[in-house]
Amino acid sequence: MSSQPIRIVVIGGSAAGPKAAAKARRLDEHAAITIIQKEADLSMASCGYPYYAGGVFDDRNLLICTPAGIVRDSGFFEKAKRIEALVLTEALSIDRAAKTVTCKHLPSGATRTLPYDKLVIATGATTLYPSVPGADLEGILSLHSLEDADALRAVRDAKQVRNAVVVGGGLIGFEVCEALHLAGIQTTVIEKTAAILPFLDAELSKLVANYVRTHGADIIKGNGVAAFLGEDGKLTGVKLDNGTELPCELAVVAVGVRPNATLAAAAGLTIGALGGIAVNEFMQTSDPDIYAGGDCVECTSLISGAKVRAPYGDLANLQGRVIGENLITEGSAKFPGVTHTGICKIFDYTVGFTGLSAEQARAAGMTDIETVTVAGLDIPGYMNGKLLVSKMVADRKTGRVLGFQCIGPGDVSKRVATMAMAIRGQLTIADLANADLPYAPPYSLALDHVIVCAHVMENKLLGRMKGISVTEVKARVDAGADCFILDTRTPREFEEQRLGIGETLIPQGALRARLNELPPDKDREIIVYCAISLRGYECAAILQGYGWRNVKVMEGGVAAWPYPRER
Amino acid sequence: MSSQPIRIVVIGGSAAGPKAAAKARRLDEHAAITIIQKEADLSMASCGYPYYAGGVFDDRNLLICTPAGIVRDSGFFEKAKRIEALVLTEALSIDRAAKTVTCKHLPSGATRTLPYDKLVIATGATTLYPSVPGADLEGILSLHSLEDADALRAVRDAKQVRNAVVVGGGLIGFEVCEALHLAGIQTTVIEKTAAILPFLDAELSKLVANYVRTHGADIIKGNGVAAFLGEDGKLTGVKLDNGTELPCELAVVAVGVRPNATLAAAAGLTIGALGGIAVNEFMQTSDPDIYAGGDCVECTSLISGAKVRAPYGDLANLQGRVIGENLITEGSAKFPGVTHTGICKIFDYTVGFTGLSAEQARAAGMTDIETVTVAGLDIPGYMNGKLLVSKMVADRKTGRVLGFQCIGPGDVSKRVATMAMAIRGQLTIADLANADLPYAPPYSLALDHVIVCAHVMENKLLGRMKGISVTEVKARVDAGADCFILDTRTPREFEEQRLGIGETLIPQGALRARLNELPPDKDREIIVYCAISLRGYECAAILQGYGWRNVKVMEGGVAAWPYPRER
C-alpha cells in the first residue's frame, strides 16, 4: 500500500453507485472514493416509496436509515465507509482525456473538478411524461424521487383528493394505484395499449384487470391521455384519446422511464440502441476506465441474448457490486445478464413473472414454443389454500423452460422465485416434473403448483393433452362455432357458478355412463373443463379412450375464465 | 384396442399407489386396474394429520375428499377413474412366476388371487417404536395412519391430557409437538441423539431448540426412552436413559419409519442396503414387470450419488406418476433422484433444508467444502421483515452449491424452494451471486437473502472474509483463548442486549478513529460481529486494511448466537 491510492469517482448516489463505492471500499481501505449525488439524500430505499405514500408505514426515516437506525447521509458515508459523498451536486461533464469530472454544488453554484483513475456512472433514469397539453398543471406527480414520495404522502395525509388517475398500467402504475386506494382515493388506471402489465400474456392480464376492477379501482385500456385539464393552474381532470373526460384532482404518471445517458453520451461513450449506456459483462463502458450500472444501462437477456432495459432496484445493486469488484480488481467479476424477473403487489393479489411471456418469446423469434395455463391452490384447501393462475412457456424442441407468469391471491412470490432459479439453471420440463421441493401442508401441495405446471406441459408436449385457451374458447363461442362444450364439475359447483356458453354438464363420475350424450360424430370438436381443468383433463382422456379424436381441454378451467359468468 | 387390456395390480392405496393407478388410467382407458389397500381409506392426505389433530381445521372429511368435496372411496375410484379399489384388503404374497397376487379381505377373511401383467408395490412404511418396557401401555400413539390422527384428535377434544411426551426430535416429532401445543397440552420432545432435526447443522439446530423452549414446549436431548411407565395398563410417565422420570398421560412416538419391504423380499425382489426395495430410475424393481415407489423404496441422491431413504409424500406422488407412465409405456419416464429437500412448521418458526448439511456432506466424503451462516430479514424492516438464519454449503473447488438450511420466523419456504431449484440446476455460487429474483418490498429485500448468502460465500471462497462460527467462538471463550472480541453495533443495540463474552464495543462509524483501542499485536486473533455480522464484515475489512492479519467475522452475528445473552 505504499503506492498512491486509487481515485474512484462515482456519479449517482441512489442504488448502483453507493453499492459500487461500498464494495470498492471493502476491497481497498485506502482507495479515495467520492460519490457525486444530485439529490439531497443517499441510498434511498426508493422501492419503498409506494408503501410510505400509501401509509403501510409512517416513519419516513425508514427510507433513508440503516437497519440500526442511522441516517445514510454524508456523515454516515464518511464515518462508516470513509467515502466522500457530495450531495446536491450535479456532474456536469466528463473529460475522458484528462480523466476528470466537473460537478456543481447546486445550492451554491460552486463548481469543482475531480480527477479519477476509475469512474462509475450510475445516473439512473428519468420518469417519462406524456407530452400533452396541461402537463405543467399543479396536481400531476410521479413516484420516482423521495420528493415525489413526500408529495404523494402529503396527499394522503391531507385527505383532500377524492379522485385520481394513474397514467400507465405497468408495475409502478399499479403500486401507485394500491397506494392511492389505501389512502381512500377513488382511482382509475389508464393504459394506452390494449393490455395492462405488458409482461403478462393476454389471459392473465385480463384476470388481473378483472380483479382490480372488483376490488376498488377502475381501469381504462386502449386509451392514452390526450390532455390534462385544469382551472387556475390546478388539475381538474384528464381527457383521453377517445374524448372521455375523467374528473380528478390528482394524476400520477407512471408510463416508464428513460435512461439518463446524456452525460455519458456527451463524453463520447457508446450508447445502445435502446438509449441506455452500453456495457460489457464487466459493466465496463466503451472506455475501460469507466463503468456504468443501474437504470442508465442496457443489459443482456440470458434467454434471448438480446439487449434489454431492466430498470429494477435489485439489478442495480447486483451491478453495483460487480462494478465495485472490478474497480479494485479489473476483470474479476461479471454480471452475466437478466432473466426478466419482476413482481408487484396489487391489493391482495400478486403479479409475478420471470423469463419470457409467449408474446415476448414469439417477438424474440422463438416460434416453436408450447404454453400451458394452469390454475390451482398454493397450499391445501384444508389449510386455506389460495388460488394461483400461471402460464408457463417452454421450447418445444429442447423442453427448456423459457418463461413463467403467475398471478393470484396465493403465494406467487415463492413460485416465481423458484421458476426464476429454474430458468437460470436452464432446466427442462423433464427436470421440473420431478423437482424435489419443500413439502409440508403449511407451504405447498404435495405436488407444488410449479410441478403441476410442468406435468401439464409434459402432457401437451407428448401430445397426450390438446389444450385450448380461454381466449380461443371465447372466440369460438362468439363466432358460433360448432363445438360441444363439456363442464365436468359437480352439480353443486355448476349451480353456484357457470360460464353460460352453451355448455353441457356431465360430472366426471358420470361420464362413462353417459357417453351417449356426447356428439356421435367422433371428429366433432369437444371442449372440456372443470374448476381448474384437472378433472377436465381426465375426462378428455376418457373421451379419447372411447374414440373421440378432437377433444381439447380449456386450460385453467373456470378459474382462468376472464369473461362474465352466470350467477 | 382390440388386444386384451393390460392387467395392472397396485398394492397400496395411500399416495404412490393411487397416483400410479390414476396416471395409468389416463394413458389407457381400457387397462384393468386394481388397487389393494389394507386400510379402510384411500388417497388420504396423510401429511395433513398433524393439522387436523391440532385443530387447524375441524372437518375430517377434508383429509379424504377431493377438492370438490367427493370422498375418495371405492365408489369414487370406480366412477371417476374406473379403478377397482379393494379396501381393508391385505396383499399376502406375490407369485412372480404365475404373475399373481394373493390377498385377503380382512373383515371376511376371504382370499382372492389376482393375475397381473404389471404390478406396483407401494406398501409404504411402518412407524418404529422403541423396544422398551411398557410399550404396550394405553396412551402411547404415533401419527402415521388416519386412525392415529383420529386418536390424537380425540385427545385434543377430550381435554383430559395435561402432559405429553413426543419421542423423537425429527420433522414429524415437531409437527406433533405443535399439534399438542395447539391442543393446550404441555409437551416435552425427547431426542436420543445430541441434536434435534438431524438434517440441520448444530448451530441452526440449537437456535430452533432455543426457540421451541421459549415458545411453549420443552426439549430433552441426548437422552432416549428407557421405559414407558404405567398404572392399570395406562401410561403415567416416561423414564429416560439417564433415569429421569417425566410424568405424562400421553406419549407420541415419532422416531422414524421402516420401509415395508417384507412382501417384496418374500417374492425374491432385491432389497437395498438401507432396507428399502431397490429400484432403477424407471422405478422398476429387480423384476422388470414389478414397479415400486413411495416410502417402501430407496432413491438416489442427486448430490452424493448414494442410495438414500426419502419417505416424503411429495416424492411418493412424483414416483407414482413415473410408475404410471412406465406401466403403459415402458421406459418412458424416469425419476432421477432426490435433493434431500424438506420443511416443517414449528409454532411461528419454519425449518427448511435442501441438499446436504455440512455434516452430511463430510459424511458423504466431500471434505473440500465451504460453509457460511447468514442472518438477515426476509423483507425490508419497514415492511415488518422477519428474521431468517441460513447456512449454505458449497464445494470449494467448483463453487457448486451443495446444500442450504434455513430457519426462522421469516419466509423460509420461498428461500428453500428457490435453493432447491438452484441445487437441481447445479448452479454455482457465481450464478447465485447475480440471480435475477422477483423483487418488490412486500416480497424480498433488494438483494434477497439467498443472494446475500451467495455473496458472503463468495467473499469466503475468495479469501476476503475469514469466518468463525458461533460454536467455535463459544469454545474459544470457554477455553479462555486470548482473542479480542469486537462488537461493532451502536451503543443503543449494545444496551438492549449483549453477548457478555468479554467483548469490546466500538461502533462501526467510530472504528477508524479508535484503532488505537485494538490490540497492538497485528497477529492477535480478533473476532468481529454485529447484529447479523454485515457491519462486522465491513469492520473486519477495515482492520485488515490497517494491517491486522488474523481478523475473523463471527457468522450470523448476535442473531445466530444460540447461547445465553446478557439482558
From TrEMBL, chains A, B:
UniProt entry tagged with the keyword Flavoprotein: yes
Protein's UniProt keywords contain Transcription: no
Any GO molecular function: oxidoreductase activity
UniProt keyword list: FAD, Flavoprotein, Oxidoreductase, Redox-active center
Names of required cofactors: FAD
Superkingdom field: Bacteria
Pfam families from the UniProt entry: Pyr_redox_2, Pyr_redox_dim, Rhodanese
Domain Rhodanese: from-to ranges: 479-567
Protein name (database record): Pyridine nucleotide-disulfide oxidoreductase
Lineage, uppermost ranks: Bacteria, Pseudomonadati, Pseudomonadota, Gammaproteobacteria, Chromatiales
